[in-house]
Structures are given as structure tokens and as C-alpha cells.
Amino acid sequence: MNVQIHAKDITLHANTRAHIEAAVAAFKKYSLDITTVNVNLGKEKKGILVEFDIHIAHAQPVVINQADDNLESAIDLAIDRASKALRRLHDKVISHHATSLKDIEVVSE
């Protein structure tokens, strides 16, 4: 998995970068074939904008935009939203492959 973190008009400290990288590494638990994660941090009029662009093989990319006044809270909210989206995608993939008509056994009495 390729992880790229870009910060525009924001000084990104080592502990904040490590926090983002640890959260992205935790995305592996969803067993999706994540190829690239782009994290963009930028300063805007309303505060801080955090964008997660998660590319998954054989699926549409998951894009999460989160704005907040505080950098750490914006990052945490974006991580929570990305985790929720990936969990839902994982559940969808698993439930799609879970049952088929040939897997269902017919029991007659």
C-alpha cells in the first residue's frame, strides 16, 4: 500500500504524520486490496480541510473530506469516516460472496 501525505500551508509535525500513518495501516484489517492512500491537508477560510483519497483495486475510490477548526480533530473525524466507509464496503463484499443458490441446502422432512 502506497501512502502519500501532502500538507499545504500547514506545518505537519512528526507525531501527527505518525498518527495518520498508523490509522492508514489499520485500514488493512478490512481485507480490501487498497493500492494507494493520498492524504491532503490544507488550510482554508473555514479552518483545516483533511481529504482521504483511498484507491481500492476493482472498486471505486473512497474519498473523504472533513473540515474543522482544529487539525487533530479534523484528522480524527476523517479517519473515523474513512473507517466507517471501508467497513461498509467490506461488509458489502463479504455479504455478496456469502451465499449463493448452490450453497443453500434443501432439507426435506
Describe the structure.
With 109 residues, the protein is of the alpha+beta class. The chain has two helices and four strands. The chain has a four-stranded mixed β-sheet with strand order 1-2-3-4, covered by helices on one side. The radius of gyration is 18 Å and the shape is elongated. It starts with a strand and ends in an 11-residue tail after the last helix. The mean pLDDT is 88.
Helix content: 25-40%
* Amino- and carboxy-terminal Cα gap: 52 Å
What's the mean pLDDT score?
88
Instruction: List SSEs in N-to-C order.
Output: EHEEEH
Overall 3D geometry?
elongated
Low-pLDDT runs of 5+ residues are none
Number of separate strands = 4
Strand line-up across the major sheet: 1-2-3-4
Features:
single chain; four-stranded mixed β-sheet
Please specify the SSE layout and strand pairing:
Elements: E1 2-8, H1 14-26, E2 34-44, E3 47-56, E4 62-68, H2 71-98
Parallel strand pairs: 1-2
Antiparallel strand pairs: 2-3, 3-4
